[in-house]
């Protein structure tokens, strides 16, 4: 298919497709003449993945490019590359950690030990979580009893997600699903939590519809 048809099939405007190509998010098609390129279903699939990561997952173009690059790291299996891609989606804060972040890092270490989680020291999500805990502390929101509740929910969700991933038909599909569920799963859980907040609050706060 030519770029006009690729645009129609994927739902992505042709100028956006060309932009994705310039940014290295979409691999080139097969050149059939000096001015013509042919594309196939693999380009449609990649476009859908790129749009999902950027528009729903909230990743920047640069982060999306890094994730896609790491999905095919030379010398690694597909699943090892997918793990690298997942790490790329969790960037810890830049700069040297202050005392609050160092103390929060100890909290994270204690949490992992308490729950028996096997997590590498190099996992950037450790730094992200420590930064969140440090910020909560600075804001006077030290409700640390919620931390294990969050962890318990995350553990249950992760177990079901991994079970679903392992039922994918091949390693490549498994790797793509891991990346997609990491990005979109974050967005989905955030949306669900906000909906649940309103529902939980309605038990304590009278809404206009309830009093009219």
TrEMBL record:
SUPFAM superfamilies, per database record: Putative DNA-binding domain
The keyword DNA-binding appears for this protein: yes
Top-level taxonomy: Bacteria, Bacillati, Actinomycetota, Actinomycetes, Mycobacteriales
Matches recorded under InterPro entries: DNA-bd_dom_put_sf, MerR-type_HTH_dom, MerR_fam
Lineage: superkingdom: Bacteria
MF annotations from Gene Ontology: DNA binding; DNA-binding transcription factor activity
Alphabetic keyword roster: DNA-binding
Annotated Gene3D superfamilies: 1.10.1660.10
Keyword check for DNA-binding: yes
Protein name (database record): MerR HTH family regulatory protein
CDD domains per record: HTH_MerR-like_sg5
Domain annotation HTH merR-type: ranges: 1-70
